[in-house]
Amino acid sequence: xxxxxxxxxxxxxxxxxxxxxxxxxxxxxxxxxxxxxxxxxxxxxxxxxxxxxxxxxxxxxxxxxxxxxxxxxxxxxxxxxxxxxxxxxxxxxxxxxxxxxxxxxxx
Amino acid sequence: xxxxxxxxxxxxxxxxxxxxxxxxxxxxxxxxxxxxxxxxxxxxxxxxxxxxxxxxxxxxxxxxxxxxxxxxxxxxxxxxxxxxxxxxxxxxxxxxxxxxxxxxxxxxxxxxxxxxxxxxxxxxxxxxxxxxxxxxxxxxxxxxxxxxxxxxxxxxxxxxxxxxxxxxxxxxxxxxxxxxxxxxxxxxxxxxxxxxxxxxxxxxxxxxxxxxxxxxxxxxxxxxxxxxxxxxxxxxxxxxxxxxxxxxxxxxxxxxxxxxxxxxxxxxxxxxxxxxxxxxxxxxxxxxxxxxxxxxxxxxxxxxxxxxxxxxxxxxxxxxxxxxxxxxxxxxxxxxxxxxxxxxxxxxxxxxxxxxxxxxxxxx
Lengths: 107, 364
What we know:
The complex is a heterodimer of chains A (about 110) and B (about 375).
Chain A: H1 2-9, H2 13-17, H3 24-31, H4 37-46, H5 56-59, H6 62-80, H7 84-90
Chain B: E1 6-9, H1 14-24, E2 28-31, H2 44-56, E3 57-58, E4 61-64, E5 71-74, E6 77-78, E7 80-86, H3 93-97, H4 101-105, E8 109-117, H5 129-143, E9 151-156, E10 165-171, E11 182-183, E12 189-199, H6 204-217, E13 224-231, E14 241-250, E15 255-261, H7 268-285, H8 294-303, E16 308-313, H9 320-333, E17 338-341, E18 347-352, H10 359-362
Parallel strand pairs in B: 1-2, 7-8, 11-16, 12-13
Antiparallel strand pairs in B: 2-5, 3-6, 4-5, 8-10, 9-10, 12-14, 14-15, 16-18, 17-18
Helix pairs in contact in B: 1-2, 1-9, 6-7
């Protein structure tokens, strides 16, 4: 978690969100401190407009792609919330959970 | 009146973009709509959304190009009133209704909007009617001190693929402008409510959904109550189906929602479990709004009286959709939101209200 926080610090969310040279997905991954390979790939796709070239974007059906992502997300959710440690951690978000246990202060 | 046209590319996030354009009165031109796809141009539901906007306004001009890959939209004044609309069954009615919630508040007359189509689907961006009715609308009602005139009635439920559902949305108009919002403490969950519904299916199914959802949630909190709504005959459309919507309410008045519909061959237990676990995920994300309410509240913040609005959202609520939304706001209203990362991992978003007045009403 510590590493994640540090990575995030590198990029200012404000700047990333309103930087129009990045597409939204890139902006998010940039902010999350993930690599910049994605950005370069996308550029390659864009400035080539050969007549006979089949663009990558056209070949993958966005609806199918969305379905696949949703399916993966579903699996992830089911798995994540079967684990006892994750469920334990969530207790503090409910009024029934003890706050003292993980040292969170109440307001 | 003669404002500069704003250009956009692509058809994603079209609904919110057009709603914002209507509120700001800016003509927009959208180009490159699936232009490199095998099946280019606008989809039927997108055209239908444009037609719906046309019905809710007076003097709007929509020009769709011959190929359907670009169009020009010059918004007129928002009139509201009694409107009926048939939505294509490709998307749930939430797709059409959710972006219009704030729009209708600034109409000339109170809106009574009847929509027919699919009432809930598994499309992540289509808000189900139950989530709208039990989470989004009560939250807006509380933040904006709207009375009971803001109401959503589910006359008929319609499952995919044939739809046949019918809802009636009643919306008052704001007299001057919206109050400012300051939400910094999400609070903690103190109860969970839900609605398990079915159309043209044995009533035992909904009980099985409820059972499995409670199995996941009861260890956190005993106050879990899931209503059941079994529709048959004239009360629903032609397709059989079942769905679950869950809402977790916090002691500070925020709410988190999750929804799930049964797909072909899926057991009711799986739907219940998946929905409950999605709710846990949303609760973990935290913040004061979930992603269903987020666009409406952010638009409301932008339009409110000229004061600083503040809201805390979860880290994972910053999605590419939100980025698109924020850029659209900047393009159409010239306003930026400010972000501050809090120690808790949440993000605080602030923006100065526009002091947007309900000009349509004054013209009356």
